[in-house]
């Protein structure tokens, strides 16, 4: 479309030039004057008529081509007004507009060509692009296995962590089949029940040192809350921490980091807040521990 | 049962005991504490009455509303027996005269001490503002502050100190003498009774000292 337009324009310009040439010739001839030396008036008249006819022809041609032209900026009729801005030299907006219009038209057209070949490729599988299926298998992520750890493996890891962390003592029970329940006690400060699925922490309940971890029927009590406000707050932070440390690909590290963080609660009652430097705030000691450096903070003093 | 600190609160001469209690209660309510009923701690004393013994021994029988089914018996050398409430019946039997024989124990008259008043809760803190009554006379104020989640006094002492000082001022600069000796052991209800005994004895001494003064007034 645009090409047709350009061609027509070029043609029109050519015709204009031809018309000007023929008109100039006629006027040149007229200006020079006809000097009839041989008295051959008829020949002169013929010649004059011929050049007038040429002018006429050129004019007709130009008119024909000119009719075929249409305003360039059909899509942005308002931009036409830019062209009549007298300050054109200062703001070459209109010419740039035309230029970009042409560019975008061209890009659109090329995109039209490209979509054909690309469409064929889109149906190919990605592994084909990489090359061989073997390579593709290597690149695929290993599915997380943290939840599928065997009981022996879990036992080993828990025993090792128990030895590694002097402040924490842990014991494993399996009241619900293969999933382990860790009973963690932290000095004479607090106790916790950690339910594991494989090695992934699924649930944490924090209670006071004097509170019973077993319900009346002798089972480990996973669900009831602590009597004390301070341990309920610790429970909330611990639940948040399980999410923070959650990592199904490296569940052992996640468990270790969680327990390391949890260990910091051995100073639950004795450590002052890192921000305000005080112990007491609204009935509680600093119950929140920073997840990275385990600094104690009050709920309202969190960084 | 957590760590408990009991402190006597001074009553200025120009104020009555009730006024001071009201001020403290108002202060606690401003801090955000809410009332959770009444409490009492009482103590009766018995004297051993054995002819053979060279020296008379005292036995203090305590009740604490926080442990309503228990009675505590403390000897004057600090030995404490924690028992069921039925033990009191046994003591009463021992204090009875039987078939002309003298009883083994004898209740000391006018020696009953009681501290009772309003119980408040603020978060995990339990605050008890008690008026001490010796032989039905008001003698002073004892304030008991308990931090229930913790069992090791040394762990939570700084926290309790900050809290106690927030409404009582500098009275709680040091932990009570009885706790001081066992900062790192697990706190038991017995230790609360020992603290009360110490304060009750002080109030009794003050009473007996002031008794001769009353006729001169």
Automatic annotation (TrEMBL), chain A:
Its main location: nucleus. Coiled coil: none annotated. InterPro entries: Mediator_Med27. Keywords: Nucleus, Transcription, Transcription regulation. This is Mediator of RNA polymerase II transcription subunit 27. Belongs to the Mediator complex subunit 27 family. It is found in: Nucleus. Pfam families: Med27. One of its GO terms (cellular component) is mediator complex. The keyword Cytoplasm does not apply. GO terms for molecular function: transcription coactivator activity. GO terms for biological process: regulation of transcription by RNA polymerase II. The keyword Metal-binding does not apply.
UniProtKB/TrEMBL annotation, chain B:
InterPro entries: Mediator_Med20. The keyword Zinc does not apply. GO terms for molecular function: transcription coactivator activity. Keywords: Activator, Nucleus, Transcription, Transcription regulation. Pfam families: Med20. One of its GO terms (biological process) is regulation of transcription by RNA polymerase II. One of its GO terms (cellular component) is mediator complex. The keyword DNA repair does not apply. It is found in: Nucleus. Component of the Mediator complex. Belongs to the Mediator complex subunit 20 family. Component of the Mediator complex, a coactivator involved in the regulated transcription of nearly all RNA polymerase II-dependent genes. Mediator functions as a bridge to convey information from gene-specific regulatory proteins to the basal RNA polymerase II transcription machinery. Mediator is recruited to promoters by direct interactions with regulatory proteins and serves as a scaffold for the assembly of a functional preinitiation complex with RNA polymerase II and the general transcription factors. This is Mediator of RNA polymerase II transcription subunit 20. The lineage of its organism: Eukaryota, Metazoa, Spiralia, Lophotrochozoa, Mollusca.
